[in-house]
Amino acid sequence: MRFRHPDGSTVHLAYCTNVHPAETLDGVLAQLRDHCEPVRRRLGRDRLGIGLWLARDAAHALVTDPSALRGLRTELEHRGLEVVTLNGFPYEGFGAEEVKYRVYQPDWADPERLAHTTDLARVLAQLLPDDVTEGSISTLPLAWRTAYDQERATAAHTALTTLAERLDALHELTGRSLRIGLEPEPGCTVETTRDALAPLTAIGHDRIGICVDTCHLATSFEDPHTALDALAQARVPIVKSQLSAALHAEHPHLPEVRAALAAFDEPRFLHQTRTLTAAGLRGTDDLGEALAGDALPDASPWRAHFHVPLHAAPAAPLTSTLPVLRAALTRLVGGPHPLTRHLEVETYTWQALPPELRPRARAQLVDGIAAELTLARDLLTGLGLKELP
Questions:
Q1: Global pTM?
Q2: 99-146 pLDDT, tens per residue?
Q3: Minimal CA–CA distance to 160: which of 174, 189, 180, 144?
Q4: How far is 116 from 55, CA to CA, in rounded Å?
Q5: Taking a C-beta distance cutoff of 8 angstroms, is the pair 191, 222 a contact?
Q6: Rounded to an integer, what is the distance from CA 236 to the centroid of its chain?
Q7: DSSP code per residue over 182-233
Q8: Could you tell me where the DSSP H helices lie in 91-149?
Q9: Where do the H-state alpha helices sit in the chain?
Q10: Which helix (H) or strand (E) holds 6?
Q11: What stretch of H or E contains 178?
């Protein structure tokens, strides 16, 4: 979906396909048929943007087979879909029964991360619509915080610098300008936007910036305006923003609140949980740890890294951090010029929701994704952007 900003520039809105498990190119093609095109039709749109997730095997197949890449582009056009952004964070196995810490491997100190992201860039350069010259890729925020020493930090810095040089060369070759955004996430080396300032200014290349995920922003109790102002002052480019909402518990000391939270403690994904105390931010790596005993202080609200549907906040006594998303979006695109032109709805946890909230059929998932995009569209038009055909 495209929108005209009051300054005349185009802002793109997509939804991320990492909600649909697929490790191979055939799986990706099935996603387009079974999910993406039905969402477009449900919205009554001639064109729908998708934030494509390509696992290692799918990306490798595309970059080594020009005919397969042409075939994917043709399939996108045939189904009324367009791609201006990729989700390069998960490497493989995102649809596995247990993902947890595995999603942070390989990290940016591992040559495989550079190789995979280079493949993604080469693929994206060929998938961009004919009238679009700028693409974006979100990626792991360097590494999970453990076992990340100075040697690995140096290796990661070198890898990202090499990637920037490759993106420069790709621009010269194709005329397509691609940028990479580190996506701060609780528990990682770069947990907050503040954590991103030092490594990104050290790299000092405008092709390497940040991806602001509003669920992660909220989970870490970052104020959107303060965070985005700091990025602007440091001249760190906001490559893209993922529009998502975290799980919020206002009174975690109450038994009924803990019981409600326990329904979201599931085995597939890591749900880092945070609370803001007088002594600063405290947290656990997973929701189950927070609920076990006194691992996390419960005198102040808790937020958990669980991407809940934008249009359907959990029932009381829980809620979502949609207000943080609204505030961030206002700052991102509500000013005289957009701070980013790539927006992506990223609720990948539909099948991890408590059983009574999960979509029971493909059509229900299509309905849910369409409802999220409708909410995002309404927020954008409410900020003065005009929806384009």
A1: 0.97
A2: 999 999 999 999 999 999 999 999 999 999 999 999 999 999 999 999
A3: 180
A4: 9
A5: no
A6: 18
A7: E---TTBSS-SHHHHHHHHHHH--TTEEEEEEHHHHHHTT--HHHHHHHHHH
A8: 111-127
A9: 25-31, 37-43, 56-64, 66-78, 111-127, 150-174, 193-203, 214-219, 224-233, 255-262, 287-291, 322-333, 362-382
A10: none
A11: strand 177-182
